[in-house]
Amino acid sequence: MKYSAALLLTLALLLGSNLGLQAQGLKSKVRESATPPIRKEKFQLYLLVGQSNMAGRGYPEAQDTVPDRHVLRLNQAGAWEIAKEPIHFDKPIAGVGPGLAFGKAMAAPDTSVVIGLIPCAVGGSGIAVWQPGAYYEATKTNPYDDAIARAKLAMQTGKLKGIIWHQGETDSNPTDSKLYAQNLTALIARFRHDLQSPAVPFVAGQLPEFQFVKPDSTGHRQVNEAAIQVNKSVAQLKKTVPNYACVTAEGTKDRGDQLHFDAASARLMGRRYAAAMLGLLKKKHR
């Protein structure tokens, strides 16, 4: 059977159009928009900040694509949608982080509330760029200013209940690690002041042990004392900063690069963040 060139062209265009519509349909299912609860107190917000291990670099697994309608995320455009991995968008390599597991664990105790995640972590960012006006060249962003702006946008429809922080890899050097306790204390106070939430709970995560031994310039493996110092600082702040807790990274594994959590470890960290946050919230309401 022969077809004219015009007919073949028409069939090709129709087929292309149908495939395009199917692709758009599939894409729309990947990210589903959502409407927050009308009552602000029922929409509990959590700010996710830090660097790559908060943003997530774990390779997604089947369970990471299962949504929970009680957990939303504020997307890059500032709109709410059903949360699913990757939660962050700091870099194209964003993967599984602690955010979604944290959100699900926070939602579990009370099904009458909805958890709103505000992802703002930026891979590679040192604590020095987490202050007003600081510019991070690697992503051409202003991490702190962007986080404040996104949090304030979210707070128009919900109530800020807590902040979780995982950072310190970039500061695991002899100079910056000595100042980490001082800088993290200032950062917590700054977040609380700028978001007009002076008592908002803050939970920080420690660095994993697989980062403690690194090759030096000659290729020999050396203990990174600076990373250990960062962890000590994160733990010590429990004595000086109110409404603060830290979580350990003990027992976690890397994804094969001796730097980032694998997906299972990221989920584990998320559950640990939630347990610590729930503990702080319980104390706050006594």
- The CATH topology of the largest domain comes to Rossmann fold
Give the SSE order as H and E letters.
HEHEEHEHEHHEEEHEH
Query: Structural class of the secondary elements?
Result: alpha/beta
Number of strands: 9
Radius of gyration: 21 Å
Given this structure, which CATH class of the largest domain is correct? Alpha Beta
Number of domains: 2
Shape: globular
- Neighbour order of strands in the largest sheet: 3-2-4-1-5-6-9
Q: Uncertain regions: pLDDT < 50 for 5+ in a row?
A: 1-29
Mean pLDDT: 90
Task: Report the total helices.
Answer: 8
Write out the CATH superfamily name of the largest domain: SGNH hydrolase
User: Proportion of β residues?
Assistant: 15-25%
Q: Helicity range of the residues? A: 25-40%
- Roughly how many Å apart are the termini? 82 Å
Organism: Hymenobacter cavernae
Keywords: Hydrolase, Signal
Signal peptide: 1-23
InterPro entries: Carb_Esterase_6 (IPR052940), SASA (IPR005181), SGNH_hydro_sf (IPR036514)
List the helices and strands and how they pair.
Blueprint: H1 5-30, E1 43-50, H2 52-55, E2 71-74, E3 80-82, H3 99-107, E4 114-119, H4 143-154, E5 159-166, H5 174-178, H6 180-194, E6 202-205, E7 213-215, E8 221-223, H7 225-236, E9 244-247, H8 263-284
Parallel strand pairs: 1-4, 1-5, 2-4, 5-6, 6-9
Antiparallel strand pairs: 2-3, 7-8
Helix pairs in contact: 3-8
Protein name: Acetylxylan esterase
Keywords: Hydrolase, Signal
Signal peptide: 1-23
Question: Could you characterize what this model shows?
Answer:
By secondary structure, the chain is of the alpha/beta class. It folds into two domains: 1-30; 34-284, Rossmann fold (3-Layer(aba) Sandwich), CATH 3.40.50.1110. The chain contains eight helices and nine strands. Strands 3-2-4-1-5-6-9 form a seven-stranded mixed beta sheet, sandwiched between helices. The N and C termini lie far apart (82 Å). This is Acetylxylan esterase. It holds the Pfam family SASA. Keywords: Hydrolase, Signal.
